[in-house]
């Protein structure tokens, strides 16, 4: 039996949070509270999601905000539909690719900034599904910005570790007054964000992209030597997309399509399903080795084929084919870690009506973390949202755009500069993203190919209802962590708290990492809480281990499990958990 206070079959230090009327799991308690307040006002899951999203901009500014981008997956239970709102911005029109090739992509500062697409996605989701007014939805975020909140130990440490943030005048004024980084417990106020949020409440999407806020952003960019223009902002539009999916052990798993890396998780699950994972045991050398090798194969395909589908034909259907997964799975040696992993040929499994473009040339990847945030919401009617939003790495570009209070992203650091690479930088092109929102439904039926090929979007067709809503930040860690927690629940019967608290691993393998400079060592990062025999077994299979402290894995998994009779919403029981590795919190009602 587990030796922790809330473990059932596995260890857990936090309880499973339960409720019947709503659940919000988010990266900060005050943001989860903002979402729950929206639900208790009578709002639905989308109202609560936007309230949570705006509050996270304030209390978790290192992870996300209106200066960044994101994905919003929405399940409308009554209509039986699942949609993804893609709020990712493009490289500015004035991008000089030759300049970046000559000088490199700056990790921070104004030339690391891409067009922020998140606000348009917020407004699109609210217009389609919201029931509360924008004033009600933004109330908590405006209050937290104006009256302040106590800085957490996590946020304090992040601020202190960012030299540019503490030195750049507009950033310093907010996060390090007088040059002294905010300490734990100090009250952080952000009057610039009050003005920006109020402008959105009063003027909606256009206030941000075409009004005074837009003009202020462009003026600031020009003063700093940046390339953002009014046309970049005016042309920035989110889009509603059909999710992609696969089946896994009697469930259907839905993901965002490219330019999200969601297909990687689905490929991983398809490959793992070719083996008897349950018989291997939970977190044994055998099961971890299998998942790491599946990860390598899926990432090799992403490196070769995935980019903005407006610019590159992406063989999604081929990559998600079960037959293709069977072919790829035969490359896994159960006793030896692969050092060199090549991409496959998913085009041979692609429907005949797809047009094949020349194969992209893969280049090396890099080990660097992305600081994103993920939160999940389910309301009393059974609607659900899984949302990820980001300013790329920790504190984004580290520069606050004048009196707007907006901390700008550094998303340009995800581009490749090799002209033969699928994800090569081009003006107006959207970069390849690691963010991937997830929903899992029971009793999978016809939906896999119907969704990916643009057919029916009836989320209830062929299955017994929503089972899991989950996701995590963490750059290329995301799809690896999500594979681990989903199999923990579906294969090994963990509670959601046990799943998010279980020890984790993360593999880096050139040439498949996202961030510049696109080079990394081949390592398997493992938390020290794994048993010694597990670590020894992985070493014996040829994995080079980097052992982190007990809770050292990146990511902050959020998970809601829906139990009960899904045909009667008043019978549903919601079980939620938030990752203890950061400031995450789950609130049920």
| Coarse structural class | alpha+beta
Q: Give the number of helices.
A: 20
N/C terminus separation: 30 Å
Strand order of the largest sheet: 1-18-17-13-12-9-8
Question: What about the largest sheet?
Answer: 7 strands, antiparallel
Query: Unreliable segments (pLDDT under 50, ≥5 consecutive)?
Result: 359-370, 444-462
Number of strands: 19
Mean pLDDT: 92
- The dominant shape is globular
Helix content: 25-40%
The fraction of residues in strands falls at 15-25%
Rounded to an integer in angstroms, the radius of gyration calculated over CA atoms is: 22 Å
Please supply descriptive tags for the structure shown above.
single chain, 589 residues, alpha+beta, 7-stranded antiparallel β-sheet, 20 helices, globular
Task: Tell me what you see in this structure.
The protein has 589 residues and is of the alpha+beta class. It contains 20 helices and 19 strands. It has helices at 29-40, 45-59, 97-103, 118-129, 134-147, 153-160, 163-167, 169-175, 191-209, 212-223, 230-235, 262-272, 277-280, 285-305, 316-319, 322-329, 447-452, 477-490, 496-501, 532-540; strands spanning 17-19, 22-26, 69-76, 81-87, 149-150, 187-188, 239-241, 244-248, 251-255, 372-379, 384-390, 438-442, 465-471, 505-508, 523-527, 545-548, 558-563, 573-578, 585-588. Strands 1-18-17-13-12-9-8 form a 7-stranded antiparallel β-sheet. Strands 7-4-3-11-10-2-19 form a 7-stranded antiparallel β-sheet, with helices on one face. A hairpin with a 4-residue loop joins strand 10 and strand 11 (384-390). Helix 1 (29-40) runs antiparallel to helix 2 and helix 12 (262-272) crosses helix 18 (477-490). The longest helix is centred in the middle third of the chain and has 21 residues, at 285-305. The chain is globular and about 60 Å long. Mean pLDDT is 92; it is low at 359-370 and 444-462.
């Amino acid at each position: 039996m587990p030796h922790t206070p809330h473990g059932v079959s596995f260890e857990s230090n936090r309880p499973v949070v339960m409720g019947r009327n709503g659940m919000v799991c988010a990266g900060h308690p005050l943001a989860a509270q903002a979402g729950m307040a929206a639900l208790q006002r009578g709002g639905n899951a989308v109202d609560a999601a936007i309230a949570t999203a705006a509050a996270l901009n304030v209390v978790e500014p290192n992870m996300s905000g209106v200066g960044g981008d994101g994905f919003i997956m929405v399940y409308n239970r009554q209509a039986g539909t699942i949609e993804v709102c893609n709020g990712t911005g493009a490289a500015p029109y004035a991008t000089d690719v030759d300049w970046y090739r000559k000088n490199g992509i700056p990790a921070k500062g104004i030339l690391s900034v891409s067009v922020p697409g998140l606000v348009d996605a917020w407004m699109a989701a609210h217009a389609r599904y919201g029931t509360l007014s924008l004033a009600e939805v933004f109330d908590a975020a405006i209050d937290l910005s104006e009256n302040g909140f106590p800085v957490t130990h996590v946020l304090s440490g992040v601020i202190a570790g960012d030299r540019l943030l503490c030195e750049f005048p507009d950033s310093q004024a907010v996060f390090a007054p007088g040059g002294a980084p905010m300490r734990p417990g100090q009250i952080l106020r952000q009057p610039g964000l009050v003005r920006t949020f109020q402008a959105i409440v009063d003027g909606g999407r256009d206030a941000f992209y075409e009004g005074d806020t837009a003009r202020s952003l462009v003026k600031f960019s020009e003063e700093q030597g940046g390339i953002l223009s009014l046309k970049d902002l005016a042309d920035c539009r989110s889009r509603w997309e059909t999710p992609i999916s696969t089946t896994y052990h009697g469930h259907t798993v839905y993901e965002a399509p490219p330019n999200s890396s969601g297909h990687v998780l689905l490929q991983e699950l398809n490959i793992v399903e070719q083996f008897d994972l349950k018989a291997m045991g939970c977190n044994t050398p055998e099961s971890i080795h299998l998942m790491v090798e599946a990860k390598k194969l899926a990432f090799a395909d992403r490196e070769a084929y995935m980019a903005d589908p407006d610019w590159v034909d992406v063989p999604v259907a081929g990559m998600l084919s079960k037959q293709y997964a069977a072919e790829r799975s035969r490359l896994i040696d159960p006793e030896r870690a692969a050092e060199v992993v090549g991409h496959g040929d998913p085009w041979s499994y692609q429907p005949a009506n797809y047009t094949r473009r020349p194969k992209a040339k893969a280049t090396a990847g890099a080990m660097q973390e992305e600081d994103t945030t993920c939160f999940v919401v389910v309301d009393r009617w059974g609607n659900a949202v899984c949302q990820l939003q980001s300013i790329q790495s920790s504190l984004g570009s580290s520069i606050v755009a004048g009196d707007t209070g907006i901390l700008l992203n550094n998303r340009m650091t995800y581009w490749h500069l090799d002209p033969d690479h699928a994800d090569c930088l081009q003006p107006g092109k959207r970069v390849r993203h690691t963010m991937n929102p997830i929903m899992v439904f029971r009793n999978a039926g016809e939906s896999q190919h119907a969704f990916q090929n643009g057919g029916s979007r009836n989320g209830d067709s062929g299955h017994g209802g929503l089972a899991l809503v989950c996701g995590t930040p963490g750059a290329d860690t995301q799809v690896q962590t999500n594979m681990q927690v989903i199999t923990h629940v579906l294969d090994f019967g963990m509670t959601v708290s046990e799943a998010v608290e279980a020890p984790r691993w993360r593999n880096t393998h050139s040439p498949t990492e996202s961030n510049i400079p696109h080079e990394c060592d081949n390592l398997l990062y493992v938390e020290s809480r794994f048993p010694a025999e597990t670590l020894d077994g992985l070493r014996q299979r040829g994995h080079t281990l980097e052992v982190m402290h007990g809770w050292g894995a990146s990511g902050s998994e959020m998970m809601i499990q829906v139990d009960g009779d899904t045909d009667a919403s008043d019978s549903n029981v919601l079980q939620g958990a938030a990752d203890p590795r950061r400031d995450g919190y789950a609130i049920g009602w």
